[in-house]
Design goal:
Structural class: mainly alpha
Order of helices and strands: HHEHHHHEHHH
Largest sheet: 2 strands, antiparallel
Strand order of the largest sheet: 1-2
Mean pLDDT: 96
Distance between the termini: 17 Å
Radius of gyration: 17 Å
Number of strands: 2
């Protein structure tokens, strides 16, 4: 599950900025090249981080997500991509497309905007693996500033943007990188997959909620 879907699930329960930031914080840390290992002096932020992990477990085990991810892998392998990039695009690509579809349905939530406005100021409460406080705070604030200025999550509504983003993300991982010449296949998949994810997005979110309730 990508960060905006986490914010949507969190906002159904509370519009508190600390809670919603916590629900997105592990994703933000990863985007900044860090691993979040602890929260200090903010119980609501800590509960949001715990909710993030529970939501990810519920999402990644949801049958519809598993089906969409596997369908994407099979299609992309048939289009000539190797197993690694096909599987990675199937996983991350479905998540990014879902974020865009949630924007279509809900708009960009005011609670999300409020959380993003507050996120940088929560840096002192976050602890990151193998990083001193100053460096962790610096990277966190830099990432929060980039996200505030970027056209996200709105850009995930466009399949071409999602495809370009996937290629860029995977380029950093030699075993998952899209081979030169296969980029058009990623764009073609994203264009087709948006409709498939759209048709099942509401049922997928219902499955996630049911799995959360049962956990």
């Amino acid at each position: 599950m990508n960060f905006f879907a986490h914010a949507v699930l969190a906002a159904r329960r509370s519009e508190s900025p600390s809670w919603i930031v916590g629900a997105m914080a592990p994703d933000f840390a990863s985007m900044a090249g860090m691993r979040l290992v602890g929260i200090e002096d903010d119980d609501e932020l800590a509960r949001g981080v715990d909710f993030h992990h529970r939501s990810d477990d519920a999402f990644h085990g949801a049958p519809i997500f598993v089906e969409l991810m596997e369908d994407a892998r099979v299609e992309l392998e048939a289009r000539g991509l190797g197993f690694g990039p096909a599987a990675a695009i199937g996983h991350v690509g479905v998540e990014l497309l879902l974020d865009g579809l949630l924007v279509d349905r809900l708009g960009v939530l005011p609670s999300y905007r409020a959380a993003m406005a507050a996120a940088a100021e929560l840096d002192q409460n976050l602890r990151f693996h193998d990083l001193g406080r100053f460096e962790g705070c610096r990277r966190w604030r830099t990432l929060c500033g980039r996200l505030r200025d970027a056209p996200l999550p709105e850009s995930y509504q466009a399949p071409d943007f999602v495809a370009d983003r996937l290629i860029w993300i995977l380029a950093k991982r030699p075993r998952l990188a899209v081979e030169a010449g296969n980029e058009p296949e990623v764009f073609a998949w994203a264009a087709r997959a948006r409709g498939l994810v759209d048709a099942r997005a509401d049922a997928l979110m219902d499955q996630v909620e049911a799995r959360l309730a049962a956990s």
